[in-house]
Design a protein that fits this description.
The complex is a heterodimer of chains A (about 90) and B (about 450).
Chain A lengths: L4 H7 L1 E3 L7 E2 L2 H5 L5 H5 L5 E4 L2 E4 L9 H5 L5 E2 L8 E3 L4
Antiparallel strand pairs in A: 1-6, 2-5, 3-4
Chain B lengths: L16 E2 L2 E4 L3 H12 L4 E4 L13 E3 H8 L10 E11 L4 E7 L10 E3 L2 H15 L2 E3 L4 E7 L2 E7 L5 E3 L2 E4 L6 H5 L11 E10 L2 H8 L5 E9 L7 E7 L3 E9 H4 L6 H10 L1 H7 L3 E11 L10 E2 L2 E3 L15 H21 L4 H14 L1 H8 L6 H4 L6 H14 L6 H15 L2 H14 L1
Parallel strand pairs in B: 1-11, 2-3, 2-12, 3-8, 5-14, 12-19
Antiparallel strand pairs in B: 4-7, 5-6, 5-7, 9-10, 10-11, 13-16, 13-17, 14-15, 15-16, 18-19
Helix pairs in contact in B: 1-3, 1-9, 2-9, 9-10, 13-14
The chains are: A alpha+beta (about 90), B alpha/beta (about 450).
Chain lengths: ~90, ~450
Amino acid sequence: MNEGLADKLYLLKYNIDDESHLVLKNPERCKKCESRECIYRCPAEVYSWEGDHLQIAFENCVECGVCKIVCPDCNIDWRYPRGGFGVFFKYG
Amino acid sequence: MASEQPFTAQADKLDRLEFDVVIVGGGCAGLAAATVCARAGLRPIVLERGRPGNKNVMGGVLYTRPTAEVFGEFWREAPVERSVIEQSLWVLTEDSALKIGYRSKAFAEGTPNAFTVLRARIDAWFAGQAAAAGALVVPNTKVEEVLRDGERVIGVRTSRPDGDVYAPVTIICEGVNPQLTQQLGMQGEIEPRDMSSVTKEVIALPPEVIQDRFHLAQDEGATIELFGDSSARLLGLAWIYTNRDTISIGVGVSLNDYVKTQVTPHDMLQRLKAHPMVEALVDGGEVREYSSHMIPEGGWNKLPQLYGDGVMVCGDAAMLVNAVHREGSNHAIWSGKLAAETAVLAHERGDFSRRTLANYWHRLYREVPTIRDLRKYRYAMTYPEKHRAVLGAYPDLASYAAREMLTVDGVTKREKEWRILRQALRARSVFGMAYDAIEALRLI
């Protein structure tokens, strides 16, 4: 069984937009965040801490909406990708 | 193929358009609403940000009766997976499972009770039904905002250039992330306690292997809900459902509980699949799809305003989910149907104000018994928060009791009962257990 998350995301069909649909309202505020819930709660490892900033791999997003709700600072300007973009499930 | 629906040529040339009803979202609720509107002679437009089904995720069990109210004997031609004849609940500890189940072939006779489904397939079929009835189903079109004239909703703004669509009544079936409903002020802030985060996999296995492992005949299906160690003792529920040649396995955990841990949703699913009882069922299978979605579990106390001037809200966007009994798609279809019938009434009266649209909610509450269940269960989700033993000590105790009583080791049954009682008192005080029990009875 292919068990790595990266392998599983690779199985998904995406139509990736040029620009991220996930935007931080104020990236500076993330530097003071202690819990970094977005990193742990995202089922697709969209969020990671790279040196001094929060990196957003929006192309992995499976569009669940968890990050918006768990962000203690409500700092994620969450929206779905544009029409026709994002993940396309074959089974669902 | 059911998924290759012939969307009309207009779809890619959206201009300033007027319809009788605008429906946001092509899931269970939206497509039911569209089908009912179109059959009544209205011209509905469904705006779907993906293609119908491709953005939707569900466990999933689809109950037949509510679905049949809109789509007739759909199971004869729709891409359903298996007819559910056995439903079980497993209370898991680290190495054991206490199993309670019910199996009857009668579930599959006449009008079958429920089917396992895969949403990408079944929603595409629903979309085909809506289109055949005369609804315009427009894919790849996202609704950015609701258009208003004062308090009255008059249509929506889509992501397409010049893509405003107008109608005297808008039915919002936008799903679990209620962006538009919130924009209209009909729903407040969604908090972690209102949502469950689900991770799910579809695992391929030959049909004969599935039938063998779950003791099923062809077309028969089984469902297992798991509780306890399956969600690492967090407030949640896991499940294993049999499809035709795949197994759906998933685990949902309240976000409020998730945030207390550093377990990721993917780890939670891996952990579940590694449990010895679970591994035996999925062993040798190949992961076909990994997905994630939220389940709205705010319940009765978190229902949004379901109607306003020129607008109604249905399905997950309206939080119409009974988390305890895994009912959601049935409410989505029912609410979509009743919203559509209310839209028809509004057109007959020529009145699209909240006064007429209130009929939607009144009928939903009066005519759909499972909606009234939401009220009955309004404290169900806070119960395990206050009574953690339900997730922690009690599954262990149940396992201990079952093992003691089933082990023949030269100890009398009376002594075994004393052992179990002593074990129970070590885990929880008499008052604690009484409190848990009384509060549990008050839930019912």
